[in-house]
Design brief:
- This protein is an alpha/beta fold.
- The protein has a single domain, classed as Spore Coat Polysaccharide Biosynthesis Protein SpsA, Chain A (Alpha-Beta Complex), CATH 3.90.550.10.
- It contains 5 helices and 13 strands.
- Strands 5-4-1-6-11-8-12 form a 7-stranded mixed β-sheet. The chain has a two-stranded antiparallel ribbon with strand order 2-3. Strands 7-13 form a two-stranded antiparallel ribbon.
- Its EC number is 2.7.7.-.
- It comes from Vreelandella titanicae.
Length: about 220
């Protein structure tokens, strides 16, 4: 299985930290945020990683290179202008191939990944869902019997980590578009599975949450 890390965002919520440093390179616990993802992918036995870049792309490429230092092979998908989640994945599909792939938002931190065999049967996506954080208290989706839905009154939050079948993007035009509407359609067609992850996960979207993650990881190190 290959993986894709979404790293093309402008990092507006992280300003002023991202005025001169792209969000994926912001340090936490002694190394850039994106390097935590690379290490976890390597531990999971994944060796081929596609990373899309736009804002300060050259800084990210210079920092990570071809991935050899991390035991990986990195393929770069450059976007002149950010293509949003769906458009960014679509542009990268020639590098990802026709098999399901692991998708990771570059601005989350998580202690685990879905298994590479999480996507089953005719499904188009498998979502890792987490408890609703205080900044997203209403959640995103329901989960019942391992199936993601939009009808349950009790909601969980999409972690930004999933397994995606390329068929989810079939027929989409080139250019910028969001992934969420495609996921919602697939959910309504009962083609999305999910799991409730209860371990350590953080949406590292603001300087305050980055600082809180740093403090927690440092305390865990003792």
């Amino acid at each position: 299985m290959k993986a894709m890390i979404l790293a093309a965002g402008l990092g507006k919520r992280m300003r002023p930290l991202t005025d001169h440093c792209p969000k994926p390179l912001l340090p936490v616990a002694g190394k850039p945020l994106i390097v935590h993802h690379l290490a976890r992918l390597r531990q999971a036995g994944i060796h081929e990683v596609v990373i899309n870049v736009s804002y300060r792309a050259e800084q990210i490429i210079a920092a990570l290179g071809d991935g050899d230092a991390y035991g990986l092979h990195i393929h770069w998908s450059r976007e002149t202008e950010p293509l949003e989640t769906g458009g960014g994945i679509q542009q990268a599909l020639p590098m990802l191939g026709e098999a399901p792939f692991l998708l990771i938002n570059g601005d989350v931190w998580c202690a685990a990944l879905p298994t590479q065999h999480a996507l089953q049967g005719n499904d188009l996506a498998h979502l890792m869902l987490v408890e609703n954080p205080s900044h997203h208290a209403s959640g995103d989706f329901g989960l019942a019997g391992g199936r993601v839905n939009q009808t349950s009154t009790e909601r969980l939050t999409y972690s930004g980590i999933s397994v995606i079948h390329p068929g989810l993007l079939a027929g989409q035009p080139q250019g910028a578009f969001a992934l969420a509407p495609l996921l919602r359609t697939a959910i309504d067609n009962n083609r999305v599975s999910g799991e409730h992850y209860k371990g350590h996960w953080v949406d590292v979207g603001t300087p305050e949450r980055l600082s809180a993650l740093e403090r927690q990881l440092q305390s865990e190190r003792g």
